[in-house]
Amino acid sequence: MDTHKTYTVEEAKRALEYYCAYQERCHKEVQEKLRSMRMIPDAIDAVIVHLLTHNFLNEERFAKAYVRGKFKFKNWGRNRLTMELKRRQISKFNIQSGLKELDALDYYGVFDALAEHKCETIKESNKYKKKKKLADYLLYRGWESPMVYEKVNALIK
After folding, report:
1. What is the value of pTM for the model shown?
2. By percentage, how much of the chain surpasses pLDDT 70?
3. What secondary structure, in 3-state letters, does the chain show?
4. 55 φ/ψ sector (left φ>0, alpha ψ -120 to 50, else beta)
5. Residue 79, CB half-sphere, CA atoms under 13 Å: how many?
């Protein structure tokens, strides 16, 4: 016997309104949530249209909130932020709009602090291995290559 709850379109709308009001969501997350609720494609479309028209779902707002949050709490650089937004199928326009949330002074300040802190924590006597570890760490976090290599060379001589 199938024990999964079934939802009417109205119940799904209410559930997804709450889901979107709790935290900004992108279309892809909403579609996955509706699929996990075992909704049919027509019902998924109807719920998404409802959420869009009532402003529960807005990808530009999602991109801006995502960029602010991941930059502030995870110290991600532009490359990582762009890649993660693309993974969520956010449009180029909305990605650019989201990246405008980054203040240039904050961006470089966070980068410098992150690089200096990480450099102090790397326990490696070989300066080339230490440079590689620091560069890999910063590149993985999505910071731009020229910035990374300039900073690595300035910190480790």
Report:
1. 0.89
2. 98
3. CCCCCCCCHHHHHHHHHHHHHHCCCCHHHHHHHHHHCCCCHHHHHHHHHHHHHCCCCCHHHHHHHHHHHHHHHHCCCHHHHHHHHHHCCCCHHHHHHHHCCCCHHHHHHHHHHHHHHHHHHCCCCCHHHHHHHHHHHHHHCCCCHHHHHHHHHHHCC
4. left
5. 11
CA 112 to mean position of chain CA atoms = 21
Give pLDDT tens digits for 83-105. Answer: 999 999 999 999 999 999 999 99
Residues in the chain: 157
Amino acid identity at 82? T
CA 127 to each of CA 15, 46, 80, 157: distance values in angstroms, whole numbers, following the listed order:
55, 59, 26, 8
